[in-house]
Amino acid sequence: MKIGFIGVGAMAQAIIQGLLNAKFVPAENILVHSAHKAHYENYAKQYGLTAEATNQQVAENSDLVVLAVVPAIAADVLAEIRDQLSTQKTLISIVSGVSLNRLEELTDYNLPILRSLPNINSQYGQGMTAVAANENLSGDRKAQAIAMYEATGSVSELSESQFAAFSAISGSAVAYVDFFIDSLSRAGVKYGFTKEMATQIAAQTTLGSAHSLMASGQTPAELIDKVCSPGGDTIAGILAMEQAGFLPSIIKGIDATIAKSTGNNG
User: Fold this and answer.
1) Model pTM?
2) Domain 3-159: what homologous superfamily?
3) 34 is in an annotated binding site
4) Which PANTHER family does the entry mention (predicted)?
5) 8 known ligand binder
6) pLDDT at 181
7) Annotated binding residue 10
8) 69 is in an annotated binding site
9) The CATH classification of domain 171-262, taken from the options 1.10.3730.10, 3.90.1150.10, 3.40.1440.10, 2.70.98.10
10) Is 6 assigned to a binding site?
11) Is residue 7 part of an annotated ligand binding site?
């Protein structure tokens, strides 16, 4: 199986690195092309990928064709490769805001298509990806496409109507979690830790907490209650954060993210 990437920006590279780390396909079976020759050729050479001279060659020579360009040029790129796409290939889009219906309009109503929203953690095998397939993609072909993302983390099949909210609490939330970790580390610096040490402590604590939550099967609230002893330090901190508007600030951040992505931000 050959996987072609049209566009090799940060998200495409994260997926590619995740696939390489998982040994999902041989490196030479990953085909790449982008608008900047020096960038994609050097990247391909560094990791043993196959650099193609055109987008058409990527589409022609790939079984899975991953559209990884910015939304503004998606229509032009699809027009460019339309003749190389066929019902024997699967188009996988990571382009934000472009629906399955629109992808069909721009290509072929008979084409198997998977719309996806991966996140940057795919690079380390810890990605969280939402997928939605059109009616032409089913059975083994659908399983093959989804397996690409399973090699880089977890996958959730959702309706497209849920994509904007998913993007906010998964894709964008990577930055929000990092912001939280950085905030913890800054507090550590206030009380005498170096920034490097404080960041390591905060990051490992966040990682351990996430693992414990997933492994325990308990709710976050139940785990919070376990840590908060009556009259203790932790409950005092929780109440202070609540009084400072911690939860409303999170909700407002998610609301703003969704509003921006859907064009409902006035």
Assistant:
1) 0.90
2) NAD(P)-binding Rossmann-like Domain (3.40.50.720)
3) yes
4) PYRROLINE-5-CARBOXYLATE REDUCTASE (PTHR11645), PYRROLINE-5-CARBOXYLATE REDUCTASE 3 (PTHR11645:SF0)
5) yes
6) 98
7) yes
8) yes
9) 1.10.3730.10
10) yes
11) yes
